[in-house]
Amino acid sequence: MWSFKKNESMSEEDKREERSSKKRKKLKGKKDETKSTYAEMSFLEHLEELRWHIIRSALAIVIFAVVAFIMKDFIFDKVILNPKTPDFWTNRMFAKLSEITGSSALAINQKPLELISIKMAGQFMTHIWVSIIAGFIISSPLVFYEFWRFIKPALYDNEKKYASGAVFFTSFLFLLGILFGYFLIVPLSVHFLGTYNVSGEVTNQINLKSYIGSVTSISLAAGVVFLIPIFSYFLSKVGLITPQFMKTYRKHAYVVMLLLSAIITPPDIFSQIMVCFPLVFLYEIGILISKRVVKKREKEMDEI
Predict the structure, then answer these.
(1) How far apart (Å, rounded) are the C-alpha atoms in residues 35 and 27?
(2) pLDDT digits (tens, 9 = 90+) for 207-244
(3) For residue 148, what are the CA distances in angstroms to 140, 158, 228?
(4) In the chain, is it the N or the C terminus that has fewer CB atoms within a 10 Å radius of its CB?
(5) Which of 200, 204, 225, 227 is nearest to 276 (CA)?
(6) Which pTM value belongs to this model?
(7) Residue 256: is its pLDDT beyond 90?
(8) H or E segment at 207?
(9) 301 Cα distance to chain centroid
(10) For the purposes of burial, counting CB atoms within 10 Å of the CB of 152, is it exposed (0-12), middle (13-18) or buried (19 or more)?
(11) Which residues pair with 116 in a beta bridge?
């Protein structure tokens, strides 16, 4: 009798294991089915597909770079060189804030910097370089779209569903970050770096290439920083980071953000908060996104 019950118990256990195994195979089969066409491509075919995506992205950058090259007066006078002038929107707002608060430290870039070019072909090469950067920024949604088209066939149907707005949100956050860097961080940095001196015996003569390098690098860096939520999503998806990891190093991230904002802003708490708050907000959003991704992955594992 005992042996019969034991065998019956083992039989029920085997049945449950068999049902669980069939369920896993069925789920795996569905996932593999969605990727069958993509998986059938050889390595060289993948490279060929990637090559055409890169070519189309490069072509879009070149087209917009040519447009930017032709619109030289607008690109340089109204965009690149404008943050150093008192008439720039951010500088005017800080000047008004300075009058309201009575703090002269808030009046930034009231004396325009004088730029010099020390090479014969310096201005021409700068013109080309700025046009390429402008072409990349303008065509960035198309570049992100081409990248998305390349990786999309490798995703499962449920992953495509949750990542359907990836191109829009990536483009939006990247361009928003560039605008944030250009309208806020760049004027503050230009004022701080352009007026800083180690001695009254030294006069600042800013090179055109150095100024434009600072403007473009700060703007592009801000654009990348604003992609923290996107990075959090994909890195959490592949298991490289977890919400616990981001929470553990939250204080370290805050210190870095505060130091960065303190370096590039005037010596007042208001300016530091203006620069630091969006970065902190994006970091917290990244934690929430990572938490959601990990929770969803654990739910799927439990169902299996």
Answers:
(1) 13
(2) 999 899 889 988 988 898 899 888 888 888 878 888 88
(3) 12, 16, 18
(4) N
(5) 225
(6) 0.78
(7) no
(8) strand 206-207
(9) 30
(10) middle
(11) 207
